[in-house]
Structure formats: C-alpha cells, structure tokens
Design goal:
Helices cover about 75% and strands about 0% of the residues. It is an all-alpha fold and about 150 residues long. The protein folds into 2 domains: about 90 residues, Uncharacterised protein YqeY/AIM41, N-terminal domain (Hypothetical Protein Yqey, Chain: A, domain1, Orthogonal Bundle), CATH 1.10.1510; about 50 residues, Arc Repressor Mutant, subunit A (Orthogonal Bundle), CATH 1.10.10.410. Helix 2 packs across helix 4.
Length: about 150
C-alpha cells in the first residue's frame, strides 16, 4: 500500500473516531503529496523517496514552529504542533539514536577514506543518502564535524 493510500485509510478512521488533531496532520500530509503529484513536469506520481522527503520536511516545519511557540510562551500552539509531529512520525522509519548515528558515520568515514575536516563534503553526501529519514540532517552534520576534527 502506498503512503497516499495509507493516509486515505487513516483519514477515514480518524474521521470515524473523531480524532481532530490526527485528522489535521493527515490532511496536511495528503495535501503535500497531492501538490507533489501535480507539480509541473511530474508524470508518474510521487516516488517513495520523494514521499519520505515530504514527511521529513513536514516534521521539520512543525518542529521549527513549535520551537518558536515555545520561545513565545504559547504552550497551546506548541502542543498542537508537537501532536502533529507525533502523527507524521508514524509514517517515517524509526529514528536512530545519537550513538547509532555516530556508529553509522564512523563506517561511512572509513568507506570514504576521510581524514579531516576538508573531507566533510564527501562524508555528508554519503551520510545524508545512507541515513535519509533515519536521522536529522542537523544531527548528522554536527556529528560529522565532531568525528572529523577529533
């Protein structure tokens, strides 16, 4: 079952169970997928990789908004954004812990043959592909810097 079909099924169940917060997040995901499908030049639909990128983008947007709301002491809006993050994350692969990411990065550094900070671009290219959807880009970048400068 594709992500779009799964979202449709989940929207129906959320409507029947009257879960308004879940419904809002699910509709937002569906909207993003539909927009991607109708983009200029898109003839085949949305690939699984593109769907993953859309979900990651949606989570990042909501986390950024939640952070702003938290700084402005708007706990009500913060709670809404974080509830949406939880719903969207159900469709993403399990996120790796910092230790797991570090272990993966050490393997990638060895494969690429990186020796110092000047090789960060090579490592980041391989790492973002290998860890797509499993770790945040900011976390990857920070850990790569630490590992290459150590």
């Amino acid at each position: 079952m594709s992500l779009k079909q799964q979202i449709d099924v989940d929207i129906k169940s959320a409507m029947l169970e009257k879960r308004k917060d879940d419904l809002k997040a699910l509709r937002a995901i569906k909207s993003m997928i539909l927009l991607a499908e109708t983009e200029k030049g898109n003839t085949e639909g949305v690939s699984e990789d593109a769907e993953m990128k859309l979900l990651i983008k949606a989570v990042k947007q909501r986390r950024d908004s939640a952070q702003i709301y938290k700084e402005q002491n708007r706990e009500d809006l913060y709670a809404i954004e974080m509830a949406e993050v939880e719903v969207i994350e159900k469709y993403l692969p399990k996120q790796l812990s910092e230790e797991e990411v570090k272990a993966e990065l050490q393997k990638i550094i060895a494969q690429v043959g990186a020796t110092g900070p000047q090789d960060m671009g090579k490592v980041m290219g391989a790492a973002t592909k290998a860890l797509a959807g499993k770790a945040d880009g900011k976390t990857i970048s920070t850990l790569v810097k630490q590992l290459l400068t150590a």
